[in-house]
Amino acid sequence: MARYTGPKTKISRIFGEPILGNGKYLGKNSNPPGQHGVTRKRKQLGEYALQLREKQKAKYTYGVLERQFANLFVEANRRKGVTGEVLIKLLEARLDNAVFRLGIAPSRPAARQLVSHKHITVNGEVMNIPSYQLKPGDIIGLKPSAATNTAITSNIRGKNPKFSWLDWNEKEMKGTFIAYPERESVPENIKEQLIVELYSK
């Protein structure tokens, strides 16, 4: 499965925010990336460019490729509700994202690796598909061999209490996907309406 393996700071500088984790270099160098970034002025973006940029930001944030993202949008459009909000809910319901949100992994790429390497279980069954769509009530846990692996358990930091759609049992090292989150509960700075407008062209 292809994935982005390029420089993360470069992507963060394009969007001006730490969408791929560590943003310590953003304050140090706020110029656009590239050899001539210092002398190049940021252009005023047009409507299409803004819409495309927002889609790219969502893709990089959640680590989703173009075809996956397009399929998610089709599914969001098919379901009841506001399409943009449903799209965010589906992105949040991905297994790799839930592992990250539960604090089992320090980042989404690390969460994706845990899932791919068969360290994560869903309802007691080993699941190695990072894009697996969780359903309310699904229980996410560590495989027994992973639960005793200090390299994995030392990175567990516990769930952030503001993520109310997830529950984490520290004693059993298991988490529950309670429900799809409301849009206002998701902290990501994504203007999903621009993505809807882009795909509606």
Describe the protein.
The protein has 201 residues and is α+β, with helices and mostly antiparallel strands. It contains nine helices and five strands. The chain has helices at 8-15, 47-62, 66-78, 83-92, 95-101, 108-116, 144-147, 150-153, 192-199, and strands at residues 120-122, 125-126, 139-142, 166-169, 174-177. Strands 2-1-3-5-4 form a five-stranded antiparallel beta sheet. α5 crosses α6. The longest helix has 16 residues, at 47-62. It is globular. It starts with 7 loop residues before the first helix and ends with a helix. The mean pLDDT is 88.
Q: Concise description?
A:
The protein contains 9 helices and 5 strands; from the N terminus they run H-H-H-H-H-H-E-E-E-H-H-E-E-H.
Strand order of the largest sheet: 2-1-3-5-4
Q: Taking Cα atoms only, what radius of gyration do you get, to the nearest Å?
A: 18 Å
Determine the number of helices (DSSP H or I, runs of at least 4 residues).
Answer: 9
Distance N terminus to C terminus? 29 Å
Structure summary, number of beta strands:
5
The coarse silhouette is: globular
**Beta-strand fraction estimate:** 5-15%
What kind of sheet is the major sheet?
5 strands, antiparallel
Report the uncertain regions: none
What order do the helices and strands follow? HHHHHHEEEHHEEH
Fraction of residues in H or I helices: 25-40%
Mean pLDDT: 88
Structural class of the secondary structure composition?
alpha+beta
